[in-house]
Amino acid sequence: MELIIDRLTKQYENKIAVDRISLTLKEGVYGLLGPNGSGKTSLMRMICGVLKPTSGEVKFNGIDVNEEEYRDSLGYLPQDFGYYPEFSAYDFLLYMASLKGLTKHRAKDKASEWLELVGLLDVAKKKIKTFSGGMKQRLGIAQAMLNNPKILILDEPTAGLDPKERIRFRNLISRLGKDRIVLLSTHIVSDVEYIASTILIMKDGQIIHQGSLDEIISVIEGKVYECSVDSKMTDYLIANYPIINIREESDKTFLRLVADKSPCEGAVAVPAVLEDLYLYYFNEGVNRDE
Amino acid sequence: MRNNLKKELKSVFDVPPPTRKNQFLSQLNYPKTSRMDFIISQLGYIRKRTWILSMLLFIGILDGLYFYKVSNSFIWVVSSILPFISLSSISEIVKSTTYNMKELEMSCKYNFLQICLVRLGVLGATNFMLLIGILILFVGKTDYSFIRLGLYITTPYLLNCYGSLYVINRLKTRMIMYVCCGVTAFVSVLNTLLTIQINEIYTEMYWLFWPMSFIILLLLSAREIVKLIRKMEELQWNLSLTA
């Protein structure tokens, strides 16, 4: 099982959303991490065949993205999806199953099975418009899984979910990644940290880092420092080092920053986490907790 | 005896729990629907109101033909109502965009393009049969020939098809249906005004106007349908795509 993305590029007028990305994905959960506008959604849409690339190709086991057979192996949860107003959760799944080529009998079985798995069986006959955001997301993953896809693409699946729902969702995705390729995009660092076996960091349309959590973090391992300093030293450190976090304390300022060696007296090296790396790359402004 | 042996064996040995059951099941090739099954399944997803509107119009015309004398004013009434039939068909085509289902449908085995072609085909065939049915009923009741009457009735219908397709191909808003409603109302009112203002519109004097308009609108509609099909192959660019 192999999904090959070869020099995939998407250009919108004069903006390059995805810039010559090449990847080979095998079974497992891949977390695509990057800020808004980094090209995550465009990349995922091209992998799903929803968007035509300017150049490059996507193939799954040798089958081109434009072929019906490719789509037969695909499950997709878009960032923002709708539903026909007259649909109940069950109707919606039956409709999606008909588009995925499931027979009527199997569609009914799979719809009931997935409604139960995502905890919506008791509201199966209710109109989707009465559902909360979390319930809609769960219904979204149920429709993506109806055809038991070999490739599962989830665009911001945990956006808008409360912490409890997010944990439930993460566990579900973890289980699904055992025997298929799961690619999920998010800008919630902890989601990726917990469930992705491989992390892909995307910036300005390119994958700037990829690897396991440990491999990714090793870039700044031993370079993350914490210190509490006075205002003069704060200004100096802000001017000279990438700052990950700032918090005003009673008489001093607490800083978490990245430096090759100890930036000031009293600075303590702390273990790096994925969020440090993410903020190191993407935090252009400094967050100041007033 | 054999049954007893089975029972004995069951009671002596525990059934081992299934291992790698899911992997095994996922390797099985379940039967899939054929293209014809897919087309038939999609008929059920065309909204009832579309069928009801077509039926009501047909019954209304039958009623009119039975109880009233067919005059020129009856022709313009029918030709002004027909664009609303095409509007109900257009609403089936744009409902994926209106309700934001397009992206999901595009990623499925039978994708958005195929769904729309099925809807277009089914509704187009229904409308065509309806028009032919109306024409056959009309012809015996007027002095006009089948073709001439066909031109009078279908030209406003085609104008509405072209106008609505033109709008669909150029606007990206989800409110597109409201714009199409406006186009239909405009076509219907325009047809009414023209036939009221120009008394000779259904006479020999305007004989060239009708076939010319029909052919031009038919070609323009065909061009817009080709454009629409090309557009359905991928999501159109907008700011959200760069996110």
TrEMBL record, chain A:
Gene3D superfamilies hit by this protein: P-loop containing nucleotide triphosphate hydrolases
MF GO annotations: ATP binding; ATP hydrolysis activity
One Pfam family here: ABC_tran
ATP-binding found in the keyword field: yes
InterPro entries in UniProt: AAA+_ATPase, ABC_transporter-like_ATP-bd, ABC_transporter-like_CS, P-loop_NTPase
Keyword line: ATP-binding, Nucleotide-binding, Transport
SMART domains: AAA
ABC transporter domain location: 3-229
Similarity remark: Belongs to the ABC transporter superfamily.
Protein name: ABC-2 type transport system ATP-binding protein
Organism: Lutispora thermophila DSM 19022
Phylogenetic classification of the source organism: Bacteria, Bacillati, Bacillota, Clostridia, Lutisporales
From TrEMBL, chain B:
TM ranges: 50-68, 74-94, 115-140, 146-168, 175-199, 205-222
Domain of life assignment: Bacteria
Ligase recorded as keyword: no
This protein's name: ABC-2 family transporter protein
Assigned keywords, A-Z: Membrane, Transmembrane, Transmembrane helix
Signal sequence range: none
Organism the protein comes from: Lutispora thermophila DSM 19022
